[in-house]
Structures are given as C-alpha cells and as structure tokens.
Amino acid sequence: MTVIRVFLLDDHEVVRRGVAALLEAEDDIEVVGEAGTAASALARIPALRPDVAVLDVRLPDGSGVDVCRDIRSAVPELACLMLTSYADDDALFDAVMAGAAGYVLKQIHGSDLVGAVRTVAAGQSLLDPQTTSAMLARLRERAAKKDPLAALTEQERQILDLIGEGLTNRQIGERMFLAEKTVKNYVSNLLGKLNMQRRTQAAALVTRLKAERRG
Fold it and tell me: Is Phosphoprotein found in the keyword set (predicted)?
C-alpha cells in the first residue's frame, strides 16, 4: 500500500490538529509535517517532500496561494489543496493560476476532505466543470482588458475597422464582397463580443485604439 504523505498549513492550531487527526485515522495517509505560517511552510516542505500540501488561503504572514506558487517551483510534483473558510472567486482564480490541484471549503465533510486528498495525490484535479468554466471566463476577461479585440475573428476585426471609417453595412458589404445581411450578422456578433449596443460605440473604440497605437 502506498502511503500519501501530507503537509498541513493553517494558522489555527485547532484546525491543524483536527485535520491531522482526521487524516491520520486513514491507513493510507500520513501527516509528515505542519506549519502555522507561510515562512515556516516554505522552509519545511522541501525537506519533507510530501505528496500533498493542504494549505490555508489566508495566513498572518502571506497567503497559501503564494506558498503554493513558490513551493511548486521547488517541488513541482507536489499537489496543493487549498483549504479556506470563504468561497472567494478571486482567491479561487489565483489558486488555479498558482497551480493548485484543488480548492475546498473548511465546511467540507471529513470523508470528502479525505477523498480530496486522495484525488489530488493521484494526480487528478478537484476543479469541477463549473469552476473550470468560470476560470476560462476570467482568463478571457483579463485578456480582453489587455486586448479588447482578443475575442474577435479576423473578419470581424476588418469589419470593425470599416465601422470606424464610418461605412454603412451596405458599403462594408461592397468593400468585402459580402451580402448586406451577412455584414449585419457580423456586426451584431462583434458588438455582442465587445459588450456594446451601438455601432457608434464600436467606432469610438476603433478611434481610441488607433490613437493609442499612434501614442
């Protein structure tokens, strides 16, 4: 039987003891170390080489997310399981970006926490499809802030440029050899992707982007 080596990081000793007792009751899990601060965890984990690190997100001297990111650069095979009292979208996003294999609330049932440790130890992710979809949406949102046109196809970008020149759908169709109705559909789609209601907003965006490129 392969024993899963677990490290616990939580600034509340009572929580650490409770989780440790829960995990140690399982034949295939061994708690090899504990810490109450980020600094202590970063110092101890590399030498102990656990399979799984259960990390509290909020710590007095930092964040479990930062510990996950830093420690995985030193121990890439380590599976980090984030444990927190709050369902926080930002913390969840940051945890995933830091390479965490899972994210569970402290209100989780004991048997579910044991199952979560086994799941991430086996190299699997605890992120459900809904969470993954939310992460992808956040990534697209961040990309859109850097490049507002990131979601547009090449054809939609060309049409957007022509909207910026003040052309009507019919004129755009003549320029691009497209039916006016087809252009109308393209315009509707690109406005939706840009979260805009009117083509004047799109034209203003083109003007702003051109000014930024010149600047």
Answer: yes
Give the Cα separation of 83 and 65 in Å (integer): 10
The model's pLDDT over 136-145, given as tens digits with 9 standing for 90+, comes to 676 666 656 6
Tens digit of each residue's pLDDT (9 = 90 or more) over 174-191: 999 999 999 999 999 899
CA-closest candidate to residue 121, choices 51, 45, 30, 27? 51
Token output for 76: 């890439």
pLDDT digits (tens, 9 = 90+) for 187-205: 998 998 888 889 989 998 8
For the chain, where are the E strands, in sequence order? 4-9, 29-35, 52-56, 58-59, 62-63, 79-84, 102-105
Coil, strand, or helix at residue 90?
A: helix
Give the CA distances from residue 69 to residues 72, 132, 167, 187, 202, in Å, rounded to whole numbers and listed in that order.
5, 19, 50, 42, 39
177: left (phi over 0), alpha (psi -120 to 50) or beta: left
Q: Which domains does the chain have, with CATH numbers?
A: 4-140 (3.40.50.2300), 147-214 (1.10.10.10)
Two tokens at 74? 């030193």
Q: What does the pLDDT read at residue 74?
A: 83
Taking the CA atoms of the chain, what radius of gyration do you get in angstroms? Answer: 25
Tokens 């579910």 identify what position? 112
